[in-house]
Amino acid sequence: MDYDLYLTIGLVIAVFSVPAVVSALSDNRTPRVAAVVLIISGCLVAWAATSKPGGYTLDQIPTVIVNVVGRYLG
To answer: How many structural domains are present in the chain?
Structure first.
């Protein structure tokens, strides 16, 4: 299983869902879809972090993201 890919996808989805949450709250709307997407991204990150033997440290996350991008887009 590619836990690095799941971590990267979860982090990218989380980054893109934060503006949707802020936009919904500023327009006095309930951020239903954005909140569900944020929960899904949190589950992806948590699953990747707990499933990988040894887990991840904060220092490893930028390297993991660069490696995943290089592996799949390069």
So the answer is: 1
